[in-house]
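Entry 14. Two folds queued back to back today. First construct below, sequence then structure tokens.
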Amino acid sequence: MREIPISKQAEYSKSFQSDRANLIAANASFHNGLLAAATDYRETSKLPQTFSIDLKQGDITNQRQSGRCWIFSALNTFRYEIIRKYNLKSFELSQNYLFFYDKLEKSNFFLESILATTEEPVDGRLISFLYSDPLGDGGQWDMLANLVVKYGVVPISEYPDSENAKNSRWMDEYLTSKLREDATELRNAALNGESEDMLSQMKDGMMSEIYRILAISLGEPPKVFDLTLRSKDDNVIQEFGITPVEFFEKYVGIDLKNRVSLINAPDRPFDSMYTVKYLGNVIEGSPVSYLNLDIDIIKNAAVAQLKDGFPVWFGSDCRKFLARKEGVFDRKSLDMEGLLNTTYKFKKADRLKYYDSAMNHAMVITGVNFDKEGKPDRWKIENSWGEDVGVKGYYVASDSWFDEFVYQVVVDKKYLDEEVIKLFDKKMTELEPWDPMGSLAMCHEVTI
């Protein structure tokens, strides 16, 4: 291996100092940070917050210091149905409710995964991966759907956020330590020849303790509740003793079996089905599944759903080329190449293959603008970071940014061609647990 000679560093410094643009860029970045210094006002002005299709949502939500974006964005698509059907000014569903049950189900999923991998070496990559993050805050659409089918949803008034939901770091820390201890005890018992019945009894006791920790941290979820809705024209709807599952079926009414995940991962074959090993929460639920398609097919499906009046859940790399204050996702608007006097040459496939990019945030598409040829040129994004960032919580993404950094979109099957729908019958290829297509489930607290 070769060192960096002091003499070479002197040459680097002389080259840096000789270019006036470098000194200006350094001054701007030092005082304002890279993102603000790289933001190009000329380009951001080309992406106004006006759209050909603009679905009106309720108040902006805020996931705070947690990695619950996948829950927030999904529930924001669900609440749209309630707001639209019942003419409400705004409405919010309890993210804390699904958060509780996701943590409970993930704990069971992790313990069962450890029991299923006792032949794997402790220092091998699989066991190391499973132990590294057994119940991160993140998740995938199919995991969300499994929770809703089993547990339903409730209004936020019935189960508001606890402080441990708003800032999940310490709850996650102590739950993770307990789960690692439990998993090791189960693994050792299995290796020592304990019976299936004994292992089951041991795990049941562990899950009872996990439930207790969650109930202390998040509160115990309601099993039934009373409902009162008041419309903008003062019509009142009341219902008494409704269960969360009944509430979802009656008031949201989305057929989750028809909502499918489309991904754009050009580092692997298109028109193919994929899943990710050891990615899940509800063991008896449907597996996480993706259909890998060309980006234009995905965009056409998203446009069709928006035209029909329904928002679109999607997963992307939100860390790439975000002008935060202006609320713009766009490579030209955040001219990091101009500021740093460099170029970033990776294509989308290379970013995935060499770990430069992955799905790390889920949001909702609520609008799209068409150019004079009728093609999308910008997309309206509803985020869950509160009203103090972006434009009152909303963002605009250029169509070119969508091409490069959107990896997943969930739509109703009816917005796909019959030939595409047939592809869902293909056998799924299993991706490794650490694949970028599973990375959204690894999210923890978000810093905005």
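Second construct, same run, same settings:
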Amino acid sequence: MFQAWKGKRIFMKTLIVTGGTVDYSFAVSYRKEHNFDYCIAADSGIRFFVQSGIQPDEVLGDFDSADPAQLSQLRSNSKIIFHQYRPEKDAVDTELALRLALEKGSSEIHILGGTGTRLDHMLGTVRLLGFAMEQGKTCYLVDAYNRIRLIRERTVLTKSGQYGDYISLIPLTTQVTGVTLQGFKYPLEAYTLGGFSSLGVSNEIVKEQAVIELEEGILILVESRD
């Protein structure tokens, strides 16, 4: 499980699987690659755990979209902690799962199933990444083709460690000032990103190390591949 020192958690990596589109072979491989300390299923995200034979640590949601048989199967396991909510609530299941992960002391959170056909849910989840960022934690929204996070300070990427071939920087705040890009195919120097522009979309790392600098604001950093 999580690493510990003198009885305290010093690093905890948590996986959340929610009810969007999940590529199962990718998700199983991703879980093995990252060796997560804790797993949370949000509503119909239980499907991944049941079908892959993986036991989540906690399950939550209003379960309006969960398969009753799969839900019953997990409920029969006394080791799994359940949280059930009414459908009429002020937060989507992914937000509840993210809040739970942070309450558990997670240092790094990865969300699978947060992308798919429901664009409204995906956009909402991108904004939820800021909830973790405000608490000084790293949170990724991931699928087989994209890895998304929010940044508001100097960030270093490596060509060997990038998730895909393309890097896109999209302002989350009205504008992001002092954007400087080094090691990219399309560099910038103290530029203000904002307004109705696609300037930051589809850049590429051309050196082993690429650096993103910014003065004020928040960027959506998308690493993607075709």
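Quick look at the second one. The mean pLDDT is 93. The CA atoms of residues 178 and 190 lie 4 Å apart.
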